[in-house]
Design a protein that fits this description.
- This protein is α+β, with helices and mostly antiparallel strands.
- The chain has 21 helices and 28 strands.
- It has 4 domains: about 35 residues; about 140 residues, Penicillin-binding protein 2a (Domain 2), CATH 3.90.1310; about 350 residues, Beta-lactamase (3-Layer(aba) Sandwich), CATH 3.40.710.10; about 60 residues, Trypsin Inhibitor V, Chain A, CATH 3.30.10.
- Helices cover about 35% and strands about 20% of the residues.
- A hairpin with a 6-residue loop joins strand 11 and strand 12.
- Helix 1 crosses helix 2, helix 3 crosses helix 4 and helix 13 packs across helix 18.
Amino acid sequence: MKPNRKQLKRRLILMLAIGLFVSVLLIARLAYVQFYLGGWLTDLAEDSWARDVPFEAERGEIRDRHGETLATNISAPSLLVVPSQVEDPAHAAVEISSILQKAEDEVYEKITEQQSIVRINPEGRKMTPELADALRSLDLEGLYIAEDNRRYYPNGAFLSHVLGFAGIDNQGLTGLEQYYDEELSGSPGSVSFYSDAKGQRMPGMAERYVEPEDGQHVNLSVDEQVQKIIERELDIAEATYSPDGAIGIAMDPNTGGILGMSSRPDFDPEHFQDVPPEIYNQNKPVWSQYEPGSTFKIMTLAAALEEEVVDLDEDRFHDPGHIEVAGQRLRCWKKGGHGDQTFMEVVQNSCNPGFVTLGERLGEDLLFDYIHEFGFGEQTGIDLQGEGTGILFDPENVGPLEQATTAFGQGVSVTPLQQVTAVAAAVNGGYLYEPFLAMEWVDPETEDIIERKEPVMKKQVISEDTSQEVRRALEHVVAKGTGKGAFVDGYRVGGKTGTAQKSSGGRYLKDNHIVSFIGVAPMDDPEIVVYIAIDNPKDTMQFGGVVAAPIVGNVIGDSLRAMEVEPREDQLEKELDWTDTEPVEIPDVVGLPLTELHHASYPLEIQTEGTGEYVVSQSPAPGSRVEQGSTIRLYLGDKSQADD
């Protein structure tokens, strides 16, 4: 039965509607693909065609507070090979292997891999510019030289534990390189070319360049001159005493900024593989934890003065050489004791029984409250990895004996950085600062300051009046007490010795001490705190006043001169003992002929620099006082220069 006209018309309309609907769907889909997915699909296509030759970003430089470069980058290109573009792999393998000094069969195997891009590691990675030029001169298809760089530390082992080092991929692995890796790293760039399905380069298609974004530069609080002085003194200590280790820290007490930090043994960051991991992984100033010894007495002194339980000049104490606490006899370092003395002399003499008495006057709660207030028992917050917290007595386990030993620095463990931070607070007016290294972040293109670190003052622990009294007492230690070795004429140095026994297996070791000294100057307005610790010095008396104090004196004196800090007039006179000689006042010899000096009888060593017959300048300055036998440096020129 044939469909009638009406049915046929309905069918035609239905088919037309379906066709129209399908057409609308196709148009909509085409529009969606063209306008909405077009960019994405183009990117996918380009990604499938593109071959990227990467360019590493320049890692940000690390500099000292004056802009001197401590860590930077040098060119170290890398070889990339596109196997599908290498026309004669056997010939290419011969040529490449001869330049890279790598086995020919290994090179051949690498450049025939079924990969879009391959690297020949390690010989072709981070090469010298000379090797890169030799590879370029081969003019072989499929070989590309990518512009890479590697980290370079121009001063070798200088500041090595603080700086740390970066790996072959320029990622920070230790020290500041690791702590600030994100800020220093930047973002890599690349050059892309287009290839067909066989990997052959497509002619007529432009390369695409993505510029790398370099990392930010950082200016540290470290003063390169102060750091050099610390490094020099630790090198001398190593040569003199053959210690198991050594530590040096210098801090600006008014901000918490680290002026210098070093430890021994050290390492060259570019050759860190040459030393055991325990050397480059242990930044001793922030990581080591040991009994502080008598340097800790500064905290007991500050607390006793703040709580007004002692008058240093009026109160007296008799030291028979020991004190009884909880049935135990705690001895003074001086056999037979110091006898009758003021508490100022207790501090000068570092008398253990006297400090036990100060701890008893404070009581357990106050003594330990102040210890915590000065920051012991917790991290200081410095911008370095691996910081220790120290070990204090559990309050539940503190009895009279633990209180007594804590008062003179025995039985507790602290880090060197905690000690420096706490002493800085004791002498700067009572303000506890968070120590830091990164001072400013700098734009790598414009050299504009992006961000500047503001000092973080955590709290005021003691009053400014108490802090002034602490400074007075510490200056007496250096001028008249156990710290005379740190005396520097003209700079009003104060400080405290420390001699701590090392323990192993719950027992103290015999003749094995960490000797230390912490010094501050100038005492009327402190600008530097210096801590030196020498671990088990050999062939010497193991006392902080004998070994560490003179080192601190050298560091403070030379650092303050480098920082152009003016000498003071109102210094306490050093109390000489039988081992001391009268200091010599440096004469004014500028303008004199060198022949006249040779006939003079100054008890000084003379070093000359320059050419000429007349002295045009001298160091130290005229009027300075130094020990007999010290060196005076004379700079020579002609008579006209001397007259000027």
